[in-house]
Specification:
alpha/beta; eight-stranded parallel beta barrel; two-stranded antiparallel ribbon
Amino acid sequence: MGASIFFSFLTLFSLLTILQAVRALPLSTSSRWIVDEGGKRVKLSCVNWANHLEPVVAEGLNKQPLDAISKKIVSLGFNCVRLTWPLYLATNDTLASLTVRQSFQSLGLTDAISGVERNNPKIIDLSLIEALQAVVKNLGDNNVMVILDNHISKPGWCCSDIDGNGFFNDQYFNPDLWIQGLTRIASLFNGVSNVIGISLRNELRGPGSNVDDWYTYMQKGAEAVHKANPNVLVFLSGLKSDKNLSFLRKRSLKLSFSGKVVFEIHWYAFSDGVAWQSRYPNLVCSIVVNNMMKQAGFLLNEGWPLIVTEFGVDQRGTNLNDNRYLDCFLATASKLDLDWAVWTLVGSYYLREGVVEMEEYYGILNKDWNGVEYDNLYCYDLKCNCSSFQRLCKRILVWNQATGPLVEFARELLPLLSNVREVMKILEGYFKLSLLQKKVFEQVKNSCQKVFARV
């Protein structure tokens, strides 16, 4: 059930205020906020789109036309794509000059070739770097902003502590080559207005990780990007697979520029093992949020923008750990008014970890990329049928999963509920909500009332 309310909550607490054309660009920062040229807040509500696996082609182009995918992104309420790319695309001219067709041929992906020929004939014989540019351009044509994320060095699935891509001076992570690649990408997209940011590196990790090298190289990377393209925001990740930025409490980042730095974190259920399914959920939420604030959230209070560039759940709704985590994440994201990027748009991969056409259970789209996998359970900008939104409203009844008999009592009443007034009566009469839960529920209630009023 947790996955079934995924985008309903995000829509209610974020998307209702940002479904607009691309703002006055370029963007910059003002204290903890990302703002446009007029100083107005721009909330990034993004989806991740993978372009970093072995084929080095944006996933799904064998399934649907590029423009159809871009329009689907917009229709789902996103204003931004975090588009991943491997370092070698920018530093290995032999790789970058391969055509999409040649890349698929080298991997034996004949069905992918046929699919791209059918759905995107203008892309099949572009070079890999030109294909990346084509995706970015089409997103721009649809008023979608782009963050270019250096996800990995050697094309492939990410991530492992021992994959050679984790930290500076690992097998595939030469810092000088990395600076070169960042510079090339920043230069290539200089003047492309919908590219609003470049993320220096995804999930720094592994046994070689250390704070001193983080400062040395991340500062160099940030300076290189800003010099090559002063318009873009520069996104900096932390240590421990992008969970830890606590070292910034004692040692500030020293850069020659300001108003362009955004910090990023990742937050999944599995970031905390299986705690969500094995312990009292409200207690776990309290502990996890407190830890997140100590590790990274404190930056908001110190006047730095912080975006969750990856979070997500198994969309099948069968993962108890994910389902319980999701309630906590969404409440926290609402309270802190966080910018975010959900993992992932991808419904299936050309090739992932040796498996052709692997389905992505964290994916929003289905494996054929022609619709949302759980379409009957989602709401986008209140563009939904009554029954699906009622399901969201009723979900609030069991927000606190540890209230014992009251939950069972509420469950028995679910079929009898016909309007928000009844929902509120039960909640206010039987549940002791925290201040945060009350605030969140008020927002849900107001949106529910609008829907029920139209029925």
